[in-house]
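During the practical work, I worked with a single protein chain and the tokens that describe its fold, as given directly below.
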Amino acid sequence: MATSSSTATTVAALLVTGCALAYGASTVFSTKSVPSLDDLDDVEENPDECITPELVVDVFDKLFMQMQQVVLQLSQQVQQLQMAGQSIPEKQLRQLLKGEFERALLAFQPKVYEDNDVDADCLEEATWEFLSTPDDYPKVKRAVERFQNLYQSISGEEVVGWTPSKGKSVASGRELSADELMKAAKLYFETITETMIDIAKAHKEAGKDLKSQEFQMEAATRSNEAAEDKIKKDMDISIGEFRSAVEKHQRNPIVGQTLGMLQMKQQQELMAAGLPLM
């Protein structure tokens, strides 16, 4: 019989990601619309036209922003069920969350592709090409893997680092204890909060709207990057090691409670600073 621990397990993973596919990226490409004959002609004539690393990063950043909000909404719904005493078997919950995620992604993709004037097939080809030499395109690698982490938090599937040529990357690095994870999570959340408040202050002084997509994109990108850099610099913990530790210890009720309290504190501080919750 399922208990609330299965629900809490999934919530713990969602909380860290909510702050913040190439298998996950393959989900982006597998849900694309079918191109017209004119589109296919254009692809054949100009296979690499306008597909720059910056464009790939921009597309994945926009998709991440949209889907991050979906993940936050889903995590809040799961928490409400948990607080009401309801429980769902983890396998069933993962399936439901994955289905909702992919339906939302399918709805968002056409607009993002249209806004960037990009063909899905060309984008797919360029993305895999750039990721075949990731050291040459670190921003592409970071943008794609950030989206992979988001998908992984929902699906429970180990997808970070997957590409058609090499498959899923093998996890490396040390394994963190539950205490190390909670210490790192505290630093991670605090850095995100501080960075977002600083960015909001700069936008306010410039007379910019904090509800604009520009602010949300910059705040999400820079705050997550700052948090990743902070735990690496201060604790020598990579984001891969951090997320692996979340997966490993997410069944620990103390870890789940700690992550929940950190998120609640973060939301309170952001609201007190006048920031809209994203």
Observations:
- Residues 178-272 form one domain.
- Confidence is low (pLDDT under 50) at residues 1-24, 33-48.
- Residues 53-83 form the longest helix (31 residues).
